[in-house]
């Protein structure tokens, strides 16, 4: 959700729009070896680029390229991280159903 920002002491006509920083994303990647990786980020595009560049999680470094298969967006970091944990506890089959691979 965009937020209108009016810097103090400036003319209101110079207000600008800033994207909300409250987006927290849980994502599932499919790695080149067919394995699934679940993570959390506040900048999804950057994080997927990092994974593919070998700068992401240790798990994905030797399993590139990765492909984004699933996302869930949350207003709070704590809710997103709780959901990340829940997904990580799922079996492989349950994760495949979640992301639509089955």
UniProtKB/TrEMBL annotation:
<dbReference type="GO" id="GO:0004519">
    <property type="term" value="F:endonuclease activity"/>
</dbReference>
<keyword id="KW-0378">Hydrolase</keyword>
<dbReference type="InterPro" id="IPR035901">
    <property type="entry name" value="GIY-YIG_endonuc_sf"/>
</dbReference>
<keyword id="KW-0540">Nuclease</keyword>
<protein>
    <submittedName>
        <fullName>Putative endonuclease</fullName>
    </submittedName>
</protein>
<dbReference type="InterPro" id="IPR050190">
    <property type="entry name" value="UPF0213_domain"/>
</dbReference>
<feature type="domain" description="GIY-YIG">
    <location>
        <begin position="22"/>
        <end position="97"/>
    </location>
</feature>
<dbReference type="Pfam" id="PF01541">
    <property type="entry name" value="GIY-YIG"/>
</dbReference>
<keyword id="KW-0255">Endonuclease</keyword>
<dbReference type="InterPro" id="IPR000305">
    <property type="entry name" value="GIY-YIG_endonuc"/>
</dbReference>
